Amino acid sequence: MGRPEPDARLPIKLEPVSNGEFYPTRNPPAVREAIRRSYEQADRNARRLGISRRRFMQSLPAAALVLYNLSACSREEKRAREGRDPGGKFDVPPEATIEEDAAKEVLTGDEFIMDVQTHFLDFDLTKPPEEEPLGIAGFFGSLSPHCADVADKRECFAMETFLEELFIRSDTDIAVLSALPYPGDANQLPPDAMEEAIRVVEALCNDDRLLMHVGAYPHVGRVEAALDAMTEARERYDVAAWKIYTMVPAAAAFYFDDHDPDRPQIGQRFIDHVREIGPPIICTHKGFGAIVGGSAELASPEDIGPAAARNPDIEFVVYHSGYEPGGGPEGPYEGVGDRSINRLIKSLEDAGVEPGSNVYAELGSTWQNVMRDPDAAAHTIGKLLRWVGEDNVLWGTDAIWFGTPQDQIQAFRTFSISEEFQEKYGYPALTDEVKRKIFGLNAARLYGVEPRNLECRFSREDLEAARAELAVGRVHGPTSIAEAARLIAVHQARIIM
User: Fold this and answer.
1) What secondary structure does DSSP assign to 424-455, as a single string?
2) What's the CA gap between 364 and 366, in Å, rounded?
3) Tens of pLDDT, residues 384-419
4) pTM (2 d.p.)
């Protein structure tokens, strides 16, 4: 099957795609079969309803159809191979795949949603791409073909597109603009651009629905100058938290607990400076080691537990939760920090950091990857709830790379962890109350914001109508290993060594 036209894409995006920090993996057979069935049944359902395929693909029953098929195909595969049901499922009744009211019952909600990992890229669209600094023209060769329906691919990542994807095409109420691993002139999302976006939203909506991280780079150049730059940024901007990538550039990578004598011993010094100038929140990329040339070691969250235990007054937000794709599906934690999220859990356990303490697990790109596999999704969410705590798991989507996060929201709304997995592994039930905490209440408490559903000159009905007029199913990140490799190379080339 070739690439479908934009209006014919599935509203739950299941094709492989990356945020530029990992290599997209080929879909397993169950997902490929779910996609095939969904296209086939979408045609049939559209004819049954007497509407066009395009109109059906923009409907809630179409989203329900994809999730229903994903659950069914995963169940069939597990039963055939292992004689059991998956550890998780999407609770979508068959009538929701054809009836609007039934679909609305399971896919819509009134939760407060706060997305703590979002990005856009601040390009000067008056200049041709080849005039962008530091070889950014190579960036566009890595972008998904799904973004080819605009004349200038930079528009896919512009502020206007970001605001559309987050606040018109999804149920997101508040978002945090999260800094990128590029210091100086290489930064395509500098604080000034974030501040401008905040002003635009305030002017449009008269509310504070955007917060900002400021990037910290204590391992790039002289540490004294880097810490002074943080102090200056704190005085100039309304900093919600500090965002740091300790693993890039690889040659200067460091650990928060300074456990490796061969690495720069600046972890505690950086933490002390954050404590001094505030706010006392450190958001750190952990996992997705391809950003450092495939080094899962440098991106390991093994330093989080010791650093959090030593600094209980500092909040550590572990972006991506330490997840590593491509090394096999996420499985249970059995006391060994061998890979992926298990490394984070082992680090916390060994350091005596209890669930609900000063470590938070963030789901950006992680949920988007594991939601294709109900078993892996159940282990991922279940482990984080059990060992990090239901009050310390944060909703993030890594938008704008995956287009609108609405499909991730809909998938999470319908997802449940099986009673079998709860009994066997000690996972808590993923109740509506727990989902509300993850969707936004936990982040609201961390950032000190009022959890409220924000409306901006339109009601929820107006929002849905506006969303229906827009193409569905767009993704903007690379969708193949070759595309991701080009983007990762650009990442590396643009980081000042």
Assistant:
1) HH-PPP--HHHHHIIIIIHHHHHHT-------
2) 5
3) 999 999 999 999 999 988 889 999 999 999 999 999
4) 0.90
